[in-house]
Amino acid sequence: MELLGLYHYWVFAILLMIGFYAVIAKRNLIKKLIGLSLFQAAVFLLYITMGKVDDGTAPIFPETGAVVFSNPLPQVLILTAIVVGISTTALGLGIVVRIKEEYGSIEEHEIQEIDKR
Amino acid sequence: MAALIDTLSWVLLTLGGLSVLIGGIGALRMPDLYTRMHAASVTDSMGAILVLAGIMLQAGWSLATIKLIAILLFLLLTSPTSSYALASAALLAGKRPLAEIPQDQEESE
Amino acid sequence: MIVIFGIFLLTLLVITAIGIVRTDNLFVAVMLMGIASLLIAANFFLLDAADVALTEAAVGAGISTVLFLSALALTSERERAKSSNRILSFIVVAAAALIIIYATFDKPRFGDPEAPVQTHVAPWYLEKTPEYIDIPNVVTAVLGSFRGYDTLGEVFVVFTAGIGVLFLLGGGKAAGVIPQDKINEGLRHHLIPRVVGRVLIPFILLFGLYVQFHGEYGPGGGFQAGAIIAASVILFALLEGEQRALSVLPERALLGLIACGPLLYGGVGLAGIVLGGNFLDYSVLSSDPVKGQQLGILLIEAGVGISVTGVLLAIFHAFAARGR
Amino acid sequence: MYYAVTIATLVTMGLALVRALLGPSVYDRVLAVNMFGTKTVLLLSVIAFLYGRPDFLDLALAYALINFIGVLAVLEFFRSRALRRSAEHGEGQ
Fold this sequence. Notes:
The complex is a heterotetramer of chains A (117), B (109), C (324) and D (93).
Chain A: H1 7-25, H2 29-51, H3 72-103, H4 108-116
Chain B: H1 2-29, H2 33-59, H3 63-92
Chain D: H1 2-22, H2 26-50, H3 57-92
């Protein structure tokens, strides 16, 4: 049970690194952005995981009865971060589209070759 | 009366779970796109009706039931529509159903 | 038992992530991202974060897929090159993963009520929200009032990102290989989706408004509502063609929305100063401090909703206009 | 009994994921995503009751409404791709 309690964190680590791998190893710029989204998702999961309390419920007071609540603070941070995340991803996609229009390619090494010329 | 409603809702939930599961197996095991789509979309609607009806009986007459009815209505509207849209897109793009392909070509497919 | 469900969902998530990285078809990767988003939302819900799950539902299911697909339509669908330095990258990544996993052994157990995170400010928020603000949703209370500065900053980040996309894609030449009338017709020839979509749009809008104004009592708030309302307009644009959507909600109106949101938020903050309190101190907005807090949260949530709607729609139109 | 339904839904999600990973055509993957969406709606509504917080059905409602957009976006993507291909083809001739 002790190890089961850490599983969420391991998934976070693995997911984070899968995203990181896509960012560093893939040459396609959109694939890099997808990797970045995965990376983001892993961080979101870490925060929400840390906020969970045993036998807790979502921090919205029910009409009857006081109960144990999970931590509201990480949820606030991540809630805003998700919307910020999609806006910044859109900005990244905008840059990729402009690169495609100017260079005719979205593969990193081809762009570098064009730059060298 | 309460026991009757309980039993009925458990029966509905079990049948719903079963039909959801059958749909999943069908979507995995069927031989081509259209048969898979058939398996997935029909059981999608059936499972949704059964499971949500089962929960509705448990919830009793409350705001939750109205929300469940809304969810069911929207699912029944959107899920067949998206299956239809997908099937027509696939057909327009030139994917033929397996039954239409002559036997000798089947292996190359 | 629910912990087991969570573990199962997380395992599926890891498998999906590996699938996303391994495929060289970007369209498939985007589809798998859709699945990953559903899994993440289900996980958030299991971890008691209803508000966050609603945000992920509103953003991940519709808007994220739409944006990625429109970017793919403008670039290419296939990844052409093999990965660079695969082995080296893999070693780096594996080593880092092992270090992080090693570090997790020092972390408090999952769900531990005695963990440092739970004992710092969170109990104070939970305890004082009924007293100072008196709304049931603590997440909204913290978002709108206790940490209002944070949220103001986030709104400005969203604002800046929107302006950035407009600068990048707004002017200049378009690709223009497709005849104008063809690209503008949307899915008008698909009769059944069109009819169902038209039935759905008012309900999505209504649900968006419900989420906006019910945010103090249940899961919801400006961020979620903004994404849902934007999704309904995007649905209209997909069905009827982008031009029709622009004639309903023209670009100038969108720019107005983008500017209005942060202005409303900042204005509420300044009103606090004018009425003799601190910046973003809503207690002075009304004679009863608790009422003032509630009014302030309502107003700033409206500001957030307006600016998120405007930014997401402007981004969508910027991408769609590029394809014309 | 909620547990039984939850387990059935989870297993089906797993099967749909396998279908999404295997393909073979892009339509299979879109089908899998669509199926996954419906199963998520069911899962969220069942879990809302399992937790005893039926007020969280809003989430399932959001998915029931918004999932449709993804499929339409895919449809529009296929349509514009076909248009682009035919336009490029026409120019090449």
